Amino acid sequence: MTGVEEVSRQRRRYARRHVSARIGLYVAAILAALICAAPFLWSLITAFKQNRDLYNPVNNPFLFNRPPTPDHVTYLFTDTAFGTFVVNTLLVGVLVVLITLAFGLPAAYALARLDRPWSGPMAIGIFLVYLVPPSLLFLALSRMVVAVGLQDSTWSLVLVYPTITIPVSTWLLMGFLKTIPKDIEEQAMVDGYSRVGAFLRAVVPLAFPGIVAVVVFAFTLTASEFIYALAFVAPTGQMPVSTGVPTQLIRGDVFFWQSLQAATVLVAVPIAFVFNWFLDRFVAGFTMGAVKE
């Protein structure tokens, strides 16, 4: 009986440790989620705060110490060109994503599949282009934008942003394509497809997680980029969100904090929703793209 009692005691002890560990894990996860969500919650609450509530230093920033008001959100839509900024951002983002895929996917496939002595150095060179600071390319790109007559136009961003997105997207897709066995496209070519047909019908569906990663990366980068957007686009009707919102809601030393936070929430929520919708494929694209042959 002594041995049985000892075994039972050890089992109960193990069960208590297991429960304690699970509780600790959940508590840590909840705390981490709250810490990560705190800036978003503050922005959401601030968007509906009255001025007397927001600018009182003794008030809790995460509570409505006075009744909430929608006036600042209304101001964002009625007294600024926020809707135009959003449309411009979507236009630029979609076009840049399409251009990035049109150039980056074939380039990545060529570097990953065609055995040439220059493939490795060229891949490294393409990635190094991404590491060049934007400020060093500013003068050259500005001359190029003026030469083609796109200054002060949203189309200048469509021309410039692919110089940032294509190099890193090519590098990412190249690493991902290397994880796809060559036998798949070789079998498709045996069945009668050309190399292009085998690429489109056999390789691209398998590379979908990597393509999703590139789409999310390219769109978020174009939506958040500030330097080129500020330098190349001056008219209010041509500005994207990244420059339009600050220039409209920061006037000298006057900050429209509630409207700024409302714009932050309205832009962040759709992006976060899409990101979480494709989260599994996005993670797979980055992690599998890190594998090399």
UniProtKB/TrEMBL annotation:
UniProt keyword list: Cell membrane, Membrane, Transmembrane, Transmembrane helix, Transport
PROSITE patterns referenced in this protein's UniProt entry, alphabetically: ABC_TM1
Segments crossing the lipid bilayer: 21-45, 85-112, 124-146, 158-177, 198-221, 255-279
SUPFAM superfamilies for this protein: MetI-like (SSF161098)
Primary residence: membrane
Membrane-related topology note: Multi-pass membrane protein
Pfam families on file: BPD_transp_1
Annotated ABC transmembrane type-1 domain residues: 86-279
Name by which UniProt lists this protein: Carbohydrate ABC transporter membrane protein 2 (CUT1 family)
Keyword presence, Transmembrane helix: yes
Mitochondrion is among the record's keywords: no
GO CC term (a single one): plasma membrane
Cited Gene3D superfamilies: MetI-like
One GO term of the biological process aspect: transmembrane transport
Localization of this protein: Cell membrane
Family the UniProt entry places it in: Belongs to the binding-protein-dependent transport system permease family.
